[in-house]
Structures are given as structure tokens and as C-alpha cells.
Amino acid sequence: MTRSLKKGPYVEERLIKKIAGKKPQETGLIKTWYRRSQISPEMVGFKFGVYNGREHVEVLVAEEMVGHRLGEFSPTRKFIRHGGKMQKELELKKKEAEISAAKSAKADTAAPAAKK
Predict the structure, then answer these.
(1) Which of 50, 49, 44, 48 is closest to 23 using CA atoms?
(2) What is the radius of gyration, based on Cα positions, of the chain?
(3) Mapping DSSP to helix (H, G, I), strand (E, B) and coil, where does residue 100 land?
(4) Which run of H or of E encompasses 59?
(5) Can you say how many angstroms the Cα of residue 74 is from the centroid of all Cα atoms in its chain?
(6) Whether the predicted model's global pTM rises above the 0.90 cut
(7) What sign does the CA torsion over 18, 71, 9, 47 have?
(8) Does residue 26 contact residue 47 with C-beta atoms inside 8 Å?
(9) CB under 8 Å to 39, separation ≥6 — which residues?
(10) Is the pLDDT of residue 113 over 90?
(11) Nearest-CA neighbor of 49 among 14, 26, 73?
(12) Residue 69 has pLDDT above 60, yes or no
């Protein structure tokens, strides 16, 4: 559910104080735990270290991000891959194809050298 237009966007006051009067090039990484804070136009160009529960993920704020939340750019879960028996078989076939292609390429380069 979106926030009421009457209330306006929620931007953490402490974040605004940290960037007030500073230039993005001079300021380094600004660490924050305020994932729920919306990105305002004043934040464009700054680097924020947004905490994801384990580490601070570096987020460089661009113009397209204005209106979004800081937490959207710092994922809390790490996707590894879908697995299973079928996936392993596909990977094995791919690996075998790469090996055979490498062998044939090696044989092709070795054959002209032997004729000389």
C-alpha cells in the first residue's frame, strides 16, 4: 500500500542531515540502516552503504531511483540457482560439449603444423 500524498514521501531526517551541504564527489560511502527511506532528488550522486542484514551493499543513487526505497537496491537474499537432477545432467552435457570442442580445435591447429 502506498503512502498518502497528503503526508508526502518518507525520507529519514538523519540521512538528509548527513548529505546536507556536501558534494557527492567529496563524500565517501554513507552507511545507513534506513532501508525504508525513500530516495529524494537531493540524494542523487551519493553512494550509500545500505545494510541488508549481513553487510553494507554499496548503492550509487541515480536519477531513475528517485521515489524508490533504499532497500530495493540492497537484496537481503542470495539466489544461488535452481538445482535438481535434470539441471545436473544439462550441465554435464554442456561441459562434455566444451571439452570435445576444445579437443577438436586442438587437433585442427596441430594438423597444419605437422604438414609443414
Answers:
(1) 44
(2) 25
(3) helix
(4) strand 56-60
(5) 7
(6) no
(7) positive
(8) no
(9) 61, 65, 66, 67, 68, 69, 70
(10) no
(11) 73
(12) yes
Nearest to 19 by CA among 27, 11, 8: 27
How far is Cα 12 from Cα 3, in angstroms, rounded to an integer? 15
Buried b (16+ CB within 10 A) or exposed e, 31-57: ebebbebbbbeebeebebbbbbeeebb
CA separation for the pair 50, 25 (Å, rounded) = 18
Q: Lowest-pLDDT range, 31-35, 53-57, 84-88, 93-97?
A: 84-88
Helices (H) and strands (E) in the chain, counts: 2, 3
Give DSSP secondary structure letters for 11-25. --HHHHHHHTT--TT
- At 29, which helix (H) or strand (E)? strand 29-32
CATH 3.90.550.10 fits 13-73, yes or no: no
